[in-house]
């Protein structure tokens, strides 16, 4: 493991030579090896800004996402690295992310494709999770043939041309499917939903339907789920935009992709336009060393303002980030992302409600969700899903042995919870504390003060 002194020396070297790609790559890899996942994520992003088409860097970024529980972001980061392309590890990262999202059928061929290219990536425990029997045998050449025949491409949206990976459709999820977080839901209703649902009332006060809200908080706490639920509440179109839909290696293409995305949202209004990991597209311009990257931020700001009066009316822009302190302050001006909404880790009642939702379609014994919620302090929603998945897999194996369904019990969930080791929330809180306590002169992070023993001003 790299010691802190070596990492600090590498940081300084990158600061002195910001355009040195091999140096940035090495720093990002060292952060990843040291388990400094948020630092690794930011370092890989900065390196990708210098080389957007680098599959090795994209794989490193995806692994940083995966290890933080940001499975959707990991899949999105590798959306342009198809089966058999890039490093073999890319296939393994995609497979793990797909399995964590519950799509085991799509994960299997991606896993086999990776192992066929590099047998050292084989993982017996993961194979069991994929439903592969112990002692199975599939030689390298048949494995590759099987993988390349059956591997599905990662999903892309209905758009054509650059940025065509944006996901578009209508959401069937509503706030009823979001456990807890009543204050967050109310903020979204007032800022985004009610102006569309009651336009005459809001017009009387000079308010139009549109604008932006930035959701921020620890990874895995439901920011993307909330965005889908907001679209479902309205019955509006939902467009989810990832980094791979916008960033392009050719100068000017990223800006055109961003403009095309907003134009598509304007044609489909009312529409919820959701930018995940927005800090990668809206980073502070003062931190950027390349004019091209600053121009992407300028284009984003122009699109948020609308090219002409009322252009964005009916376009509800939602963004999510784990690192709001890296977002350019210009995005917080009125009419842009002028409302920051903290999506906290779930408290005990919310954890119990999340567990109940996750277990809706599972055969159940008398379950004490409250006891399980008390045993999962510090778990994010994604961590709780992992607990339920682990418990279900163990119970399914027992059911196969006896030949009949067996109900899930409190003991099953408690056993799975004891085996889980969540870290994302604790790591995020440690980073957030530094900003709240030492870089909060404007008061923008006052909402977080109660989480660290302070009082809101």
TrEMBL record:
Membrane spanning segments where? Answer: none
Pfam families cross-referenced by the UniProt entry = AAA, TPR_19
Going by the entry's taxonomy, the superkingdom of the source organism is recorded as Bacteria
Question: Residue ranges of the AAA+ ATPase domain?
Answer: 209-347
Q: Which UniProt keywords apply?
A: ATP-binding, Coiled coil, Nucleotide-binding
Which GO molecular function entries does the Swiss-Prot or TrEMBL record give?
Answer: ATP binding; ATP hydrolysis activity
The record's listing under InterPro entries reads: AAA+_ATPase, AAA_ATPase_domain, ATPase_AAA_core, ATPase_AAA_CS, P-loop_NTPase, TPR-like_helical_dom_sf
Q: What's this protein's family per the entry?
A: Belongs to the AAA ATPase family.
Output this protein's name: AAA family ATPase
Q: Which organism is it from?
A: Actinomadura spongiicola
